[in-house]
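Narrative progress, year one. The postdoctoral researcher (J.K.) led the effort to move from monomer predictions toward full complexes, under supervision of the PI. The following entry was the first complex the group processed end to end, covering 275 residues in total.
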Amino acid sequence: MGRSPCCEKAHTNKGAWTKEEDQRLIAYIKAHGEGCWRSLPKAAGLLRCGKSCRLRWINYLRPDLKRGNFTEEEDELIIKLHAILGNKWSLIAGRLPGRTDNEIKNYWNTHIKRKLLGWGLDPQTHRPIGGSAAFPVASQQQQQQAECNNVLLPAQAPTFSCKATAADSADEGHSSGLVDDERYDVHGQELNLDLSISLPHHSLKPAIPTATTTAAAAAIGEESYMVTGAAGKGAICLCCQLGFQNSEACSCQAIQSPHVLFRYYRPEEEGGQGV
DNA sequence: AAGCCTATCAACCGCACACTC
DNA sequence: GGAGTGTGCGGTTGATAGGCT
């Protein structure tokens, strides 16, 4: 006959939390730890639904939360992770210490979405809207900084790509539905729509894992990222760079593409090679 | 000053998944 | 294997603050 409701709605408060409720929740979790959300409200003397308590704690009361504005680095990381993971806010949040999925989701919807639209990119697929891109021009200083950090800026002929089959995509809703080798010409330069993030073609420095690349790789767990240098020479599996040379995900020899600096590799059981 | 509009973000809701019995 | 339960996730809503006319 269906499941019982998570709480007795008639006797629970809704809406904004009061200071007193916050204090009760904090005190209870400090004393007993997280978990058992269903029984927590009663035990803590709160007239709230367990889910509501959990949400309040995770999104607002947790001591390790980082409040305040998102930094440029966080912006970039969110965009990159979203290109890989889609609307998997909790996974994205897992790579941004001190940030919550709800916070990132809100930030995406209010800021980044608009930013991408301004760049002429579809926020869902990260593809150019209408087949032509209108990337903003990054300042020389921004570009230099980005090159130092191996971060892609829009003006840098993005090999900014989103190839994804339904099976490949982190979630089907995010699938761009592109076919293999579908590419876009942006400002006279080839835009590879593979689901990967890379440095521009002209940047021939050996790639060094940055916080962003590392996080992006870690974001997909066991699957490995490839980081290659100039024209495909010196391909380095990110696993190796991270010190996981012997892990199953390590696949250093597998990639030689001159167009890809680091890209998403699928585990062997899913069909093996890069996408 | 008042009314309207927009942006922001905390919170809610419904669903899905994992686990237990 | 199926039902029940707990928990987590993502989409959406609603309250509120701030800006504009």
